[in-house]
Amino acid sequence: MKPKKDKQHPSSYRPISLLSCLGKLLETIIKQRIMLEVERRNILPEHQADFRPGKSTIYNILRLERYAQNQLRCARRHSAVIPFDIKAAFDSSGTPQGFPLSPLLYIMYTADSMNEIPTHTEHGLFANDTALWTSSNIMTYLSSRFQQSVKMHSKVGASREN
What we know:
It is built from five helices and four strands, in the order αβαβααββα. By secondary structure, the protein is of the alpha+beta class.
């Protein structure tokens, strides 16, 4: 059950996927083989962190921190960040939460989600979470970039639901 939710509503409960130990072992072996091929073919976005060898959430946090410091130090520009959390990301994409293979399948499924964001907008992908950041000397440019980015990000998400 989700914390602080009404026990009477079905949406208050988190679905649990039960998998046998043998099933988890087989999924883990399959995941390792797929991951080797995905990395070899460079299928995943460069800035996809989490569930990848050698990259963690810290990778994108440090990228964002360096970006913000550079903008403040060099140009005294306005900067902003928009974080996205995809609701029920694994379950809504057909990859049940709790299965060893689910995170890899999900990030492969969403690998092209940042292809259409505008120039001068950076992004970081954290499994099922995304952060977009940008800066500008002019607030209206900053706002415009974010509006374009959110529109493109939402369009990709909506096309995946159909």
